[in-house]
Amino acid sequence: xxxxxxxxxxxxxxxxTNNREATAGAVHHLVQHGRKxxxxxxxxxxxxxxxxxxxxxxxxxxxAKLKPLIREHIDSFELTEEAILRAFETRSGFDGLLTGNGTxxxxxxxxxxxxxxSIPSRVSFITFDDFVLADTLRPSVTCIAQPLEELSRIVTExxxxxxxxxxxxxxxxxxxxxxxxxxSCGCSVKS
Length: 191
What we know:
It contains 5 helices and 9 strands. By secondary structure, the chain is of the alpha/beta class. Strand 3 (38-41), helix 2 and strand 4 (69-71) form a beta-alpha-beta unit.
Protein backbone atom coordinates (compact mmCIF):
# COMPACT_ATOMS: atom_id res chain seq x y z
CA UNK A 1 0.00 0.00 0.00
CA UNK A 2 1.44 3.35 -1.04
CA UNK A 3 0.61 6.52 0.90
CA UNK A 4 0.63 9.84 -0.99
CA UNK A 5 2.74 8.24 -3.69
CA UNK A 6 0.98 7.01 -6.82
CA UNK A 7 2.47 3.72 -7.95
CA UNK A 8 1.67 2.45 -11.42
CA UNK A 9 1.59 -1.19 -10.46
CA UNK A 10 -1.68 -3.10 -10.55
CA UNK A 11 -0.60 -5.03 -7.43
CA UNK A 12 -0.21 -1.94 -5.22
CA UNK A 13 -3.04 0.05 -3.65
CA UNK A 14 -2.58 3.80 -3.39
CA UNK A 15 -4.09 6.37 -1.02
CA UNK A 16 -3.49 10.06 -1.61
CA THR A 17 -5.10 13.48 -1.47
CA ASN A 18 -6.36 15.73 -4.24
CA ASN A 19 -3.15 17.75 -4.47
CA ARG A 20 -3.84 19.19 -7.91
CA GLU A 21 -7.38 20.34 -7.17
CA ALA A 22 -6.46 21.69 -3.73
CA THR A 23 -3.62 23.78 -5.14
CA ALA A 24 -5.78 25.15 -7.97
CA GLY A 25 -8.37 26.04 -5.31
CA ALA A 26 -5.74 27.90 -3.28
CA VAL A 27 -4.74 29.93 -6.36
CA HIS A 28 -8.41 30.71 -7.00
CA HIS A 29 -8.78 31.87 -3.38
CA LEU A 30 -5.77 34.20 -3.66
CA VAL A 31 -7.17 35.60 -6.92
CA GLN A 32 -10.47 36.29 -5.12
CA HIS A 33 -8.41 38.43 -2.73
CA GLY A 34 -7.21 40.46 -5.73
CA ARG A 35 -3.80 38.80 -6.08
CA LYS A 36 -2.39 38.64 -9.61
CA UNK A 37 1.32 37.85 -9.18
CA UNK A 38 1.31 34.60 -7.21
CA UNK A 39 4.66 32.97 -6.48
CA UNK A 40 4.78 29.18 -6.02
CA UNK A 41 7.69 27.68 -4.06
CA UNK A 42 8.44 24.00 -4.67
CA UNK A 43 10.96 21.87 -2.82
CA UNK A 44 11.55 18.83 -5.03
CA UNK A 45 9.99 18.86 -8.51
CA UNK A 46 10.81 15.14 -8.91
CA UNK A 47 8.36 14.10 -6.18
CA UNK A 48 4.99 13.07 -7.58
CA UNK A 49 3.21 15.05 -4.85
CA UNK A 50 5.05 18.25 -5.80
CA UNK A 51 4.40 17.61 -9.49
CA UNK A 52 0.67 17.39 -8.80
CA UNK A 53 0.72 20.54 -6.69
CA UNK A 54 2.67 22.40 -9.36
CA UNK A 55 0.19 21.27 -12.04
CA UNK A 56 -2.64 22.51 -9.84
CA UNK A 57 -0.90 25.86 -9.41
CA UNK A 58 -0.35 26.14 -13.16
CA UNK A 59 -3.98 25.23 -13.86
CA UNK A 60 -5.22 27.78 -11.33
CA UNK A 61 -3.04 30.47 -12.88
CA UNK A 62 -4.18 29.51 -16.40
CA UNK A 63 -7.84 29.60 -15.33
CA ALA A 64 -7.27 33.12 -13.95
CA LYS A 65 -5.34 34.11 -17.09
CA LEU A 66 -2.27 34.90 -15.00
CA LYS A 67 1.40 34.19 -15.64
CA PRO A 68 2.94 31.48 -13.43
CA LEU A 69 5.85 32.47 -11.20
CA ILE A 70 7.59 29.29 -9.97
CA ARG A 71 10.77 28.71 -7.98
CA GLU A 72 11.86 25.09 -7.61
CA HIS A 73 14.50 23.19 -5.63
CA ILE A 74 13.86 25.36 -2.57
CA ASP A 75 14.76 23.19 0.40
CA SER A 76 16.30 25.42 3.06
CA PHE A 77 15.66 28.68 4.86
CA GLU A 78 18.47 30.34 2.90
CA LEU A 79 17.09 29.26 -0.49
CA THR A 80 13.59 30.33 0.55
CA GLU A 81 14.92 33.73 1.56
CA GLU A 82 16.83 34.09 -1.69
CA ALA A 83 13.83 33.04 -3.82
CA ILE A 84 11.44 35.41 -2.05
CA LEU A 85 13.79 38.39 -2.08
CA ARG A 86 14.75 37.89 -5.73
CA ALA A 87 11.12 37.57 -6.80
CA PHE A 88 10.22 40.58 -4.67
CA GLU A 89 12.96 42.68 -6.28
CA THR A 90 11.78 42.06 -9.84
CA ARG A 91 9.95 44.88 -11.56
CA SER A 92 6.50 43.46 -10.90
CA GLY A 93 7.33 41.53 -7.70
CA PHE A 94 4.60 39.31 -6.29
CA ASP A 95 1.54 39.83 -4.15
CA GLY A 96 0.57 36.23 -3.38
CA LEU A 97 2.60 33.29 -2.14
CA LEU A 98 1.77 29.59 -2.16
CA THR A 99 4.24 27.06 -0.77
CA GLY A 100 4.22 23.39 -1.71
CA ASN A 101 4.75 22.03 1.80
CA GLY A 102 4.67 23.01 5.44
CA THR A 103 8.41 23.33 5.90
CA UNK A 104 8.59 25.84 3.04
CA UNK A 105 5.59 27.59 4.55
CA UNK A 106 7.37 28.04 7.87
CA UNK A 107 10.52 29.28 6.13
CA UNK A 108 8.50 31.69 3.98
CA UNK A 109 6.65 33.07 6.99
CA UNK A 110 9.97 33.63 8.82
CA UNK A 111 11.52 35.33 5.77
CA UNK A 112 8.60 37.71 5.37
CA UNK A 113 8.64 38.52 9.09
CA UNK A 114 12.41 39.09 9.04
CA UNK A 115 12.22 41.41 6.04
CA UNK A 116 9.07 43.19 7.22
CA UNK A 117 7.00 42.05 4.24
CA SER A 118 3.50 42.62 5.54
CA ILE A 119 1.17 39.60 5.49
CA PRO A 120 -1.53 39.82 4.10
CA SER A 121 -1.60 43.52 3.14
CA ARG A 122 1.49 43.26 0.90
CA VAL A 123 1.55 39.49 0.27
CA SER A 124 -1.32 37.07 0.79
CA PHE A 125 0.02 33.69 1.85
CA ILE A 126 -1.16 30.05 1.82
CA THR A 127 0.88 26.94 2.56
CA PHE A 128 0.32 23.23 2.21
CA ASP A 129 0.18 21.17 5.36
CA ASP A 130 -1.35 22.55 8.51
CA PHE A 131 1.16 22.79 11.35
CA VAL A 132 0.89 23.06 15.12
CA LEU A 133 1.40 26.81 15.53
CA ALA A 134 -0.31 27.95 12.32
CA ASP A 135 -3.32 29.29 14.18
CA THR A 136 -1.31 31.02 16.92
CA LEU A 137 1.09 32.99 14.70
CA ARG A 138 0.20 36.58 13.84
CA PRO A 139 -1.13 36.69 11.32
CA SER A 140 -2.48 33.16 11.60
CA VAL A 141 -1.50 31.05 8.57
CA THR A 142 -3.99 29.76 6.01
CA CYS A 143 -3.18 26.14 5.22
CA ILE A 144 -4.26 23.32 2.95
CA ALA A 145 -4.66 20.44 5.40
CA GLN A 146 -4.55 16.83 4.40
CA PRO A 147 -6.87 14.45 6.30
CA LEU A 148 -4.01 12.65 8.05
CA GLU A 149 -6.12 10.55 10.39
CA GLU A 150 -8.37 9.34 7.58
CA LEU A 151 -5.37 8.67 5.31
CA SER A 152 -3.74 6.62 8.09
CA ARG A 153 -6.93 4.70 8.84
CA ILE A 154 -7.54 3.78 5.20
CA VAL A 155 -3.91 2.76 4.61
CA THR A 156 -4.00 0.57 7.71
CA GLU A 157 -7.29 -1.05 6.66
CA UNK A 158 -5.99 -1.74 3.15
CA UNK A 159 -2.74 -3.16 4.48
CA UNK A 160 -4.49 -5.55 6.86
CA UNK A 161 -6.96 -6.51 4.15
CA UNK A 162 -4.14 -7.38 1.77
CA UNK A 163 -2.27 -9.28 4.47
CA UNK A 164 -5.37 -11.36 5.21
CA UNK A 165 -6.23 -11.85 1.55
CA UNK A 166 -3.18 -11.30 -0.72
CA UNK A 167 -5.33 -11.71 -3.83
CA UNK A 168 -7.68 -8.90 -2.79
CA UNK A 169 -8.41 -6.18 -5.33
CA UNK A 170 -6.07 -3.17 -5.21
CA UNK A 171 -7.60 0.27 -4.88
CA UNK A 172 -6.84 3.85 -5.85
CA UNK A 173 -8.30 6.18 -3.25
CA UNK A 174 -8.12 9.97 -3.35
CA UNK A 175 -9.29 12.01 -0.36
CA UNK A 176 -10.09 15.71 -0.39
CA UNK A 177 -7.82 18.19 1.35
CA UNK A 178 -9.36 21.09 3.24
CA UNK A 179 -8.33 24.71 3.13
CA UNK A 180 -8.27 26.15 6.63
CA UNK A 181 -8.91 29.86 6.20
CA UNK A 182 -6.99 32.12 8.54
CA UNK A 183 -5.60 35.65 8.33
CA SER A 184 -2.51 35.23 6.11
CA CYS A 185 -4.55 34.92 2.90
CA GLY A 186 -6.50 38.07 3.66
CA CYS A 187 -9.57 36.51 5.25
CA SER A 188 -10.99 37.99 8.44
CA VAL A 189 -11.08 35.35 11.12
CA LYS A 190 -13.50 35.68 14.02
CA SER A 191 -12.30 34.53 17.41
